[in-house]
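Quick one: structure for this chain?
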Amino acid sequence: MKFLKTAAAICLCLIASALIFSCSLSGDMPAETSGYSYRSEQPSHAETGAEPVPQPETEPQTQPQPAPSTEEPPETDGIAALIGTMTLEEKVGQMFLVACDAERAAADVAEYHLGGLVLFAPDFADRTPQEAADAIASYQAAAKIPLLIAVDEEGGTVVRVSKFAQYRAQPFKSPAELYREGGLKALLADVDEKTQLLRSLGINCNLAPVCDVSLDPESYIYPRTLGLDARTTAELISSVTLRYVELGMGCVLKHFPGYGGNTDTHKGMSVDSRDFAEFEQGDLLPFIAGIHAGAGAVMVSHNIVTCIDPDYPSSLSASVHSLLRDALGFEGVIVTDALDMGAIKEFSESKGGSAAVLAILAGTDMVCISDFKQAYDDVMEAVKDGLIPESRIDESVERVLRWKEALGILS
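Got it. Here's what it folds into:
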């Protein structure tokens, strides 16, 4: 019996050696791992002295295959994939938010691949709601990538749609008047009604709320503000912004970093010489609140704010954009105020450069402008000449497309 046990052990060793040699030739051996060797939980027959169990005479069995993975394959990032298919012309076009020229809008959208259109009172004055909706639908139909369709429907002195009786019996009231009459409840009801009206026309973005703080009735910006202190304004902006986000209507916080008591930049340059502490304790608070509430975009003013950048208007200032992007952590879309305004025209002419190029170099994502074609050509040339890296364009286009995606515009 002892001889049989010894013979059986020798046979098992020979069989094991043959299998190892065969696996090494076929590549089925597992790769070695440092400090780790596999050992079966059960000891061998040679170690225990037990008789080997006779095996039935069958065909050799193959190595067991691992079970199919139940893990979902990683999802493809649709936005990154879309950007990868876009031409430079298409990407640059997405960075332009252009005043609507009703006669040429559809053709311009198709030719320049525009990111969005801003509509003004003339786009609604002589049209019924259905006619306005049809016109907007025709602009969208011309777009390869769906458009942002925006208006300034702030209420009070700035209304584009409700100005006309065929859209609303009375224009929307200013935020300050609404708050005096009904507090936060009235402000939220106002957002609800504006969203319903704008969406019925095909508009997906309201260039509001105004986050500027002013307690001076004589200041230029006062009629468009809540007319309240910074902390109260911040609390209300947070709630209003959150309601826009919940409703899926695009909103834009404006005019960063805060207008204060400055003059109208539609007419000329305005210089703000206040200390930065005043911005920290006041003007920036409503923007911070709106950002935390989920606002998708922030509009930057044209004021020169000397405590941040004494040399450049905010819309063209890398320092102002850094404050918004880095210090305040804003990850959404940065939009310029209209680059056709007198303040920027004067400044860019004095520098001998293109306002659109300067804005993009500073960090803006979307250029808001009426007469856009020269600006578009300037940006294209700047990219081709290497002044603006194409990677810089890609960063902004990604933000624009992700904002559109969040609003459901791309679906």
